[in-house]
Amino acid sequence: MSFEWPWQYNFPPFFTLQPNVDTRQKQLAAWCSLALSYCRHHKLYTLDIMEVQECPVFNHKNIDRKLSTEAILIVFEELRKKGNLEWLDKNKTQCLVMWRRPEEWGKLIYQWVSKNGMVNTVFTLYELANGDDTESEEFHGLEEWMLIRSLQALQTDGKAEVITMDDGKGVKFF
Amino acid sequence: MDRFTWSNGLLEMNETLVIQQRGVKLYDGEDKECCIAIPLSQIIYFEEQAAGIGKSAKIVVHLHASPANKEPGPYQQSKFSYFKLSFKEHGQIEFFRRLTEELSQKRWESTPMSQPIPTATNSQTGRTRAVGIVGIERKIEERRKETEKISQSKLMVKAKEMVELSRSIANKIKDKQGDITEDETIRFKSYLLSMGIANPVTRETHGSGTHYHLQLAKQLGDILLAPLELLSPEDLVNACKMFESLKQPLRLRIFDSGVMVVQLQSHSEEEMISSALDNVTDKGSLTAEEFAKLLGLSVLLSKERLLLAEKMGHLCRDDSVEGLRFYPNLFNSQA
Fold it and tell me: Do the record's keywords include Protein transport (chain A) (predicted)?
């Protein structure tokens, strides 16, 4: 399925940081939504600032408009405030994108587990994210760092426990 | 006062120094003007003696022999034919220069002496005296006063000329009478520059201040489209600020950027904005230049209107290498 661009993507002012405060709020909200849905569509979890500038999301060649680096950082700051982004370094060159937050992932995983009556079973992390059984699930292919955070979120809720095994980590669901 | 004697300044055996005081003036009885004089005509030549360590600069003046008709002075006889002036503090250079001047001009030979300089020994009034050393100072002072008078009167003449010229120019503008000659313009400009005046004020109009501005405001209200006389921007703005109080149908409007415009009172803000939005929507998008052309307004004014509409949230902007362009604010209107 090809990615569906929102109407703003073809609207030139979308690529200019708006001076009017109210207008800007709406603009940034639209950018956050676009960035996240694009990352979700392409299953992007980590972003590099330099690479991202050339990414079609921020660089719309058809209308010859691109979002400035300054504006990209402002959008990313909005995402961070909402809990959807985490900087990996102080210089803000790389970040983790959580188009779904850990809690949301945890919920999805637990739903699948309980639906299949697999509560009280132990899974390895690999099985969970890359096993054949989970192939059709959204969380399939989830990167390990995100998986661990999601399971930790469940752990906090008392719904799971992360265990360390001989050849890696695993999880038991309750 | 003929009782003074020379002294070497040292104390005699039986004397003690009681007190020393500088800056004390000597009066001969009631006569304040008490001084020693030497006519310049007596000077053969004079020379400088430079200052040394512990020695002040001096001027040495060499004299002719005393004439037979010399008036009585403090000393009847002297073995020297020169005297020295010792400049304890300063003034030697200037004095030397002046003395040189006087001695080269030898004014005593040509000008009749009209001013009697009272001296200690001059008991005969009306008797003219040759210019003395101290008398030189007086002459200098007089000359300075005269020069000042001349300067002032020259200045008055110039000012008068200038006022007349500017009046003639103003009249010509008013009556559209003939052309202002280039010569007049040049003269006028140079007058202004030389006086350092940007805005010559004439007393005979309405003076300056509120009354003047009021009158101006009234005039402006009536003849806004006609060519104006030369006005300073400040006067114009001040006059415009009074439109409301004068019940004129005009308003002075000041934008955020500081740009000021005069507009008809009927021109309300909402109307301006909604019409701007209509224009932009109609064309899809507009730059300030395009908008100006459309409405027949100045680019400056058009831009201000677009910015105002943006501020109100009706328009948004597209800023790129292609320029600044305004669009309807779809962020607001579209879901």
Answer: yes
